[in-house]
Amino acid sequence: MSRTFYCRGQTGQQLLLGAYGALCRQVGLGRVKMFPRTEMLDLVVAGGRARGIVTRNLVTGIVEAHTADAVVLAAGGYANVFFLSTNARGANATSIWRSYRRGAGFANPCFIQVHPTCIPRSGDFQAKLTLISEALRNDGRVWVPKRRGDTRSPDAVPENERDYFLERMYPGYGNLAPRDLASRAAKRVCDHGCGVGPGGRGVYLDLTAAVAGLGEKVLCERYGNLFEIYERISGENPLHTPMRIYPAPHYTMGGLWVDYGLQSTIPGLFVLGEANFSDHGANRLGASALMQGLADGYFIIPYTLGEYFGGAALGEVSPSDRPFVEAAKEVEDRLARILAVQGKRTVDSFHRKLGAILWEHCGIIRNAAGLGAAVEKIRLLRAEFWENVLVPGDAADLNQELEKAGRVADYLELGELMCRDALAREESCGCHFREEFQTACGEALRDDRRFGHVAVWEHAEQEREPVRHVEPLTFETIIPAERSYK
Known about the structure:
single chain, alpha+beta, FAD/NAD(P)-binding domain, Flavocytochrome C3, Chain A, domain 1, four-stranded antiparallel sheet, 12 helices
């Protein structure tokens, strides 16, 4: 049995190339106008409908309002709120967060998938983490030394002193256990003091037995460029030395609430892909970005968007209309406010601190005390940000520090909402594991009676606490049961 099949990282790559090719074709035909090096900084709501966006040109700094009959957001997820994640550095939450502040409901913000097979961090200098395909768990065995603080090289640890913890904890699935279970197990053995590598935040993914049984040639045919990526980063050949891996934030199942037509709570605002909450719930299957990209972008939105146009009475709007002028002014004022602080602390230092708070209290394992403390810590950090952040340069030019500052300002609000959502959900389910709610075997203990619903948060103005709404989940064909991988 295999966990997944490795396609040399080409599944997502080919999906992107196909999408880019189709887009460029439409640009060439004159049906689409593309705005490169441009960032959406706000949503314009006019007459109760989404009628445009406000953008900033990242090269010239020009802020502009654009009109539209509808707005489609496909901006990805928000895992970079943790500072270190497997996501591209440019990925951020600003477009969906600004839409939330304009009235779009935000569903299940605490549902974050943590991927178990990532190369561990090496230090504070890192900007992101590297994902290594979990297909390697098909042939590799995951272990740590049984003795705490054991710093011997892996080849010096005899077989009887190794803890193959996934095989021990989940004998039915072993190293093929689901992502959330594998991630929690890795964190637990590292918290116990058995982790390996710098800071003890790593476990071994060992291919020794596979090399002996299948040979290096077969393994290189299956995973060739994975080995090259790992060796370039770590300086070690994984065919000769066990790989070191550790969980990292990877995918956000939470996002803006949408109906079956992918329309948010704001009429005319449609949200696709990882930017919305649909399809995944508290867990996500690997490689499902392909599925959601096809479902949302190919099978759904071409039809539901047309249905919206056919039924909506859309009047003419202009960038000179009051809602557009006011939204653009708010964006300019927010940028000016950030530049005016002129404090002593860098944007990255705030982002790194926020990520540490969230990873500790709203990451793989959570509890009420930690989540409550995190809310207060984030509030204090946000207050300090607006008093002490340092952003050099100005807004009328290329200014990457200003770009980052705007994103981190949004992250500091989103992070608090994530913790509030996790605190309110008094159960364990999928990626959301509360220590107070677990079985005698240490597994997730759901409460379907009280929490068999989607939690949808509504923004409240004037620093008031957000409002939590619920959308009940109804199961007619398959009744939810307890997961067991023992």
